[in-house]
Amino acid sequence: WRFYFQPKQWFRLGDHVFYLRAGGPDEGFADVTVLRLTPSFGLVQRIDASAMVHVSSTRWRLTGVLERRFYPDGESTLTTLENAVYDLGAEKNAFRIRKGRPEQMRVAELREQVEARAEVGLPSSQFSLALHNRFAYPLAGVPAALLGVGLALRPGRRASLTGAISQGLVIAAALWGLMVVTRTLVQSDRLPAGIAAWLPPAVLMVAGSVVWYARESGGLRVRR
């Protein structure tokens, strides 16, 4: 449980891959490895450093540097530096990755995490889903209530507390089932987060509209 919500330490930005074992963008990172790759994913350069601190823009100061360069003919070189400044093509904000459950974050934090994770190549679908659900969850109660009222007021229906409770439980179970299925599809990258969040309320709205249309046209006259 503890390791699952630890910050992801592998990042990819452009042709650079970063392995940041400790620290943060404000205080700097410790024990880092930076790889530079070719478009065909070949290794061109590897930099190992004991510390990496932001200087300005995309420039970072590395301390205790071991720089290895790899050439197409198979040769390689090793350079040792006490301090060096590199342009790594990464802004400081690109590494602002927060740990924790997306559902427990505020809207502004969710938006920040979606953008930051997209920049460094980390999955952000769960954060996008949590952001959309922040509005879709409460609004789902409106079509659910309309559907329940439409079923309760259909012509020819006898007043029954048991029947009303059963119908409410069926609607709630259907809404929960839709949310579980759409969340699973988002986690498997088979459905966009925006569609997954708003699909359950949309299904309830369609069902409620059908029930109310049938009620007005006299189509639902099933007696209990």
Classification by helices and strands: alpha+beta
- State mean pLDDT (0 to 100 scale): 83
What distance lies between the first and last C-alpha atoms, to the nearest angstrom?
Answer: 50 Å
Low-confidence stretches: none
Amount of helix: 40-55%
How many strands?
6
Question: What do these coordinates show?
Answer:
This protein has 224 residues and is an alpha+beta fold. It is built from five helices and six strands. The chain has helices spanning 107-120, 125-139, 141-152, 161-187, 193-217; strands at 10-13, 16-24, 28-37, 43-56, 59-70, 76-87. The chain has a six-stranded antiparallel sheet with strand order 1-2-3-4-5-6, with no helix packed on it. Helix 3 (141-152) runs parallel beside helix 5 and helix 4 packs antiparallel against helix 5. It is elongated and about 85 Å long. 22% of the residues are buried. The model has no long low-confidence stretch (mean pLDDT 83).
